[in-house]
């Protein structure tokens, strides 16, 4: 009797180890003889039960794919992101090539700027401009290389415009300052494109870059005026005042948004005010060339 009871307990324990969450079974109080009469499960039956219990459930993705027929969609999704990976790698490689050229442009502009600063130290103008002009051909070659790289963008070069716009604005400022020192007039947009070897059809000079470069030129003028007056050039303030007044009036024709260009244009009026103050001091002291001429004429007439 005890052996039969132990066999029944071991069978129940073995069944629980196979299936830890069995369905509740109502066990009636049968006589022990019925338990003894019940045949013990065969090993093959136990194996089949174990296999059914331990069979892994299918993954949610697999069940979803099989139920909805989504295997083709997952393949197209993988192909799409593979295309994205290739595009991003090509974009990154192209951007690295652009930045390498832009770094050379930046290095060239630093050389030009350091040479052009000698103007504020009353160095001879032809000597200063000769050193700066030697770098214009270097810039032209660099922008030509940049245009060749951007031809691979198939018309989408504006996606990379942020990589060279700051350097281009500085270049326009330096070219415009040189042009004004030589001619006393404004460097036009088409002339700046010609100096850099750019063209409106393929790789143009961005209009905003040109305008911001002119604003940078305006920021440079007050310092130049003060240094020229200290060097004895009393006619410079009037010349610069006329130039900045015309430039400021031309900018007022534009309907500028509240962006960086608008902020730079707002700074132009302060440059104009500083030059006006210098010119006003010159007139008070009767040092301006125009005033001395008028005074001499008045004295002769009297």
TrEMBL record:
Compartment list: Cytoplasm; Nucleus
Cytoplasm recorded as keyword: yes
Keyword DNA-binding among UniProt keywords: yes
Pfam families listed in its UniProt record: Translin
Record keywords, A-Z: Cytoplasm, DNA-binding, Nucleus, RNA-binding
Transmembrane segments: none
InterPro entries: Translin, Translin_C, Translin_fam, Translin_N, Translin_sf
Coiled coil: none
Protein family (similarity comment): Belongs to the translin family.
Protein name (record): Translin
Organism from which the protein derives: Xanthoceras sorbifolium
Lineage start: Eukaryota, Viridiplantae, Streptophyta, Embryophyta, Tracheophyta
């Amino acid at each position: 009797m005890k052996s039969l009871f132990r066999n029944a307990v071991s069978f129940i324990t073995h069944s629980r180890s196979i299936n830890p969450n069995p369905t509740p079974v109502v066990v009636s109080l049968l006589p022990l003889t019925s338990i003894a009469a019940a045949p013990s499960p065969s090993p093959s039956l136990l194996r089949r039960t174990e296999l059914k219990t331990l069979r892994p459930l299918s993954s949610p993705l697999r069940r979803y794919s099989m139920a909805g027929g989504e295997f083709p969609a997952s393949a197209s999704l993988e192909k799409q992101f593979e295309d994205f990976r290739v595009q991003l790698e090509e974009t990154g490689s192209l951007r690295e090539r652009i930045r390498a050229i832009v770094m050379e442009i930046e290095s060239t502009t630093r050389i030009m700027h350091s040479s052009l600063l000698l103007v504020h130290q009353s160095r001879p103008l032809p000597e200063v401009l000769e050193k700066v002009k030697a770098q214009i051909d270097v810039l032209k070659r660099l922008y030509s290389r940049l245009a060749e790289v951007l031809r691979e963008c198939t018309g989408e070069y504006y996606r990379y415009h942020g990589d060279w716009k700051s350097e281009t604005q500085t270049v326009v400022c330096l070219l415009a300052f040189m042009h004004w020192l030589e001619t006393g007039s404004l460097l036009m947009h088409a002339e700046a494109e010609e100096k850099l070897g750019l063209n409106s059809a393929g790789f143009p000079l961005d209009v905003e870059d040109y305008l911001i470069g002119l604003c940078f030129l305006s920021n440079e003028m007050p310092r130049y005026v003060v240094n020229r007056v200290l060097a004895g050039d009393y006619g410079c303030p009037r010349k610069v005042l006329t130039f900045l007044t015309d430039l400021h009036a031309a900018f007022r024709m534009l309907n500028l948004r509240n962006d960086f260009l608008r902020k730079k244009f707002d700074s132009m009026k302060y440059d104009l005010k500083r030059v006006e103050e210098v010119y006003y001091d010159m007139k008070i002291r009767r040092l301006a060339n125009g005033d001395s001429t008028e005074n001499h004429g008045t004295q002769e007439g009297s």
